[in-house]
Amino acid sequence: MAHFEINIDKLEMAAGKLRAISHPMRIAILELLAQDESLSVTEIYKTLDIEQATASHHLNILKNKNVLVSKRSGKKIFYSLRSNTLMEIIECINRCNEE
Q1: With 58 labelled, which of 30, 33, 64, 96 sits at a CA distance of 20 to 30 A?
Q2: Can you give the pLDDT at residue 41?
């Protein structure tokens, strides 16, 4: 049997990202950002029809787990996906539900 080394730090980071995306509203934010490369907080909360504070809360969770990146432009903050890999995972889960 081949030797398999477990990297606890890497596993914790992966679990943290999965926990971060494990909320319906955060998945909706990711799906929205997968369609548009970069959106402001205002564009996100208006499109999803949620409160600004709610959007900011979810965006901060995703940003803190390195799922999203943010860039300030004047008074606005724009968010974008760090990578499309998590969207691929979400799409895979959605396909599993179809079967």
Answers
A1: 96
A2: 95
Query: Quick one: 89 exposed, middle or buried, by C-beta within 10 A (0-12, 13-18, 19+)?
Result: middle
E strand map for the chain: 39-40, 68-73, 76-81
Single out the residue of 37, 21, 40 nearest to residue 88, CA to CA: 21
Residue type, 58: H
Residue 13 lies in a domain: no
Phi and psi, residue 61, nearest 5°: -60, -45
Q: Is the pLDDT of residue 71 over 90?
A: yes
Look at 9 and 3; give whichever has higher pLDDT.
Answer: 9
Domain that holds residue 44: 19-98
* The model's pTM: 0.84
